[in-house]
Sequence to fold (263 residues):
Amino acid sequence: MTANQETTSSANSPHVGLFVTCLVDLYRPSVGFAAVKLLQHAGCRVTVPQSQTCCGQPAFNSGDDHHARQLAIQVLNAFEEFDYIVGPSASCLGTIRCHYPEMFADDTALLPRFEALCAKSHELVSFLVDVLGVEAVEEGFDHCVTYHDSCSALRELGIKSQPRKLMASVSGLRLNELQGTDICCGFGGTFCVKYPEISGRMAADKVAAVEASGADTLLAGDLGCLLNLAGKIRREGKPTRVFHVAEVLAGMADCKSIGEGDD
Fold:
């Protein structure tokens, strides 16, 4: 995405710093552009700070507290000025909102700043629904979809009804709920690297549930989950298309499915 890009809106509009996430930036920039479109349509000014990189989650989950703290400070400095920090990933925003205070619990100088940052940090769809009061979108998607709830969304941020509320407003979209939607897809960041056999079995079970749902399209709110499942779907030769929910809500699901054309 274009660095330091700021969208125009009223000076009184909420000023959102968009946390793009590493995966979106490197593998699926269209998710970032969809996020900008949704936030703009909801009346926000949006800035994409150039200095942002990783939220520090891989380092934090691996016990590398030193580098996790360095990355957290970088996020703090990049986003502290905005009214809100919003991103299309419950995984990253869960790290920012829930774990940054843990990282700096013994730092009396930085902890109050991180607590203030956490209080204004939100996953994209929950921000639209819970903070801005968005009840519907004006897009169409004439497909039968199923939805995977990521672990971070459900267990860290309490996100479940919000994406379903907005999906219900998409013209033509039919939702077939996924059996075991609350079960991990097997990605888990570094988990899939440390335990590939277990991860692969979990992904296979999830893909089987997607097929059993009868849906032709899989949606979710975390690109890590989607890349993991799209790869498994592709390796098994399944026809299921895969999109981030923001792409559908923003009317931008006319691009290639996640996992297509990556050879």
